[in-house]
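Page 47, continued from p. 46.
Same chain as before, 84 aa.
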Amino acid sequence: MVPMAIGANRVTGLLVKLEPEEFSKLLDRAKDLLVVMVESGVFSTHYDYLTSYKGLPFYTRSKDPLKLPAGAEVVNASSILLPD
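Result:
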């Protein structure tokens, strides 16, 4: 998992990056789904998504919002810090 603490300014660990289509397929398989979403961009809007599946954290970035499964718990965050 990606360890984080309140006030942390550095993220370390494993993060699996997927294309938006593959990320959506993974969301359809997950139970008790929690998704962190960030909408950002200056000249064009993009959407970042983060979730955990079977103990691994998965991430994607999409230029269009993803359709999330019914019942998914969504946390709207101001940013997602990615490991270097």
